[in-house]
Protein 1
Amino acid sequence: MASTKNSNKAKTAVPRFGEWLRVMREDRKLPLRAVAAEAEMDQAHLSKAELSQRLLTAEQAAAIARFFKINLTEMEARRIAEKFRMEHADNPAASQAVQLLHETPPPYGKAR
């Protein structure tokens, strides 16, 4: 049963932000320099972002979203998720923090 659970997890895993960007670019057969130019950024910075070594700014991500005609909210959500991943990857409480974000908090000031 554990192997089924792990295989399902692997199938539904969301790719890292950089990998997602790279696949999007490569699917369109675009060179790094073309996408970097659209975002008015250095090609090396975009390359490092695709390798998950650096994070794009909100402005750079928005420019790339417009270029690829991606929803700006989706792009920013993916960028924020990657930022969280980069900053908290080694923290054992990170997954619990994500679960807390999904819970509905009780109304304040009311007794339980």
Note: The chain has a mean pLDDT of 86.
Protein 2
Amino acid sequence: MQHIRSYYAASAHGSPPREALRGDLTADVCVVGGGIAGCSTALNLAERGYRVVLLEGKRVGWGASGRSGGQAIFGFAAGQDTLIAQVGREMARRMFDVSVEALDVLKSRVARHGIDCDLNWGQMHVAIKPRHVTELQAWREELERDYGYASPRWLDRRELREILATERYLGGLLDPRSGHLHPLNYTLGLARAAEAAGVRIFEGSQVTRLDHGDTVTVSTDAGTVRARYVALCCNAYVDEAISARLRARIMPVGTYIVATEPLGEARMKALIRDNVAVTDINWVLDYFRRSADHRLLFGGRVSYSGLDPLNTERATRARMLKVFPQLADVEVAYSWGGYVDITMSRAPDFGRLAPNAYYLQGFSGHGIALTGMAGQLVAEAIAGQAERFDMFTRLEHRDFPGGRALRTPALVLAMLWFRMKDLL
């Protein structure tokens, strides 16, 4: 099993396939899932002295961790109001602080483990409509007033135009503490760091059965791992063989990215002067950034009805040209899609299936920094310091309506409604 064809896979550092699990092993902890959340969980536990086995059904970084837009942003997709309504203002503030700490954790891990992943700082939310300007300015005031987060700076249209060569945006909120990176190389670097700390990683080892008890037994077609604890970090790819309960609480959402041919340094900097990542605040949003070799990486167009590779390149390129019409002569070199996992509330879903069975899911597009932090929280909890992990378990999550047969059609209709709202 190889990574899908993408710019990230083509520019990834060498990572020879790892062997599949054969036979029976014992461990202190079995981690299921080889994305950022799983590799971070395994690394944190190994650094605490636990014997850890990680099982990945395909390749490390095969899913969203190796395909995403690569933007590392503070906060949560749900927004603070959703958290406040469920857990109160003080605990929502503590959750926000965890999301900011996630950026610091990412920075320190990259430095400490020497992970070469094109990490750059600077990320901007931009306004397309006058109401977006009002929303972003109010958000900046809220962040500073209620959360002590004074890092973001408002740019008016003239200031923004000096950074981005486009007339599409009316202003932007620039945060120098957020940033962007090569997500696959970051995930592969975390996996190498975990192995150096003693983690045993097996690829091509899809979990087919999970038996709970004082000792958890995790089975694949060719072997088993018996462990005191299990940490499920499957996200969009969790299936009913692992947990029907978890599967019902998340919806895999398709998102799409293109990478242009190399533009050269001068032309790339003429489009985006500073090496910042950008996302608009439409419900069906666009996001883009520069690559290390001076390509434009442009993504968006979420879909609830599944990936559509035939239309990915054409539709995403058309959205790109709305922002940068001066790229009409530029070819798309790579086009790919993947799934992110969302919850009904867009808040992260962390918890336990049993006292010794932990899970992480529902990052809802905010996974680059938050997944790494979530792995640290799970390791803390297993080591007996569960206060921060348990704070997130207080968030309420509901199944998506309609069951397996009807929930996707229902969400497609909902998506059409939100697309219409973006036009207002």
Note: Residues 413-423 have pLDDT under 50 and may be disordered.
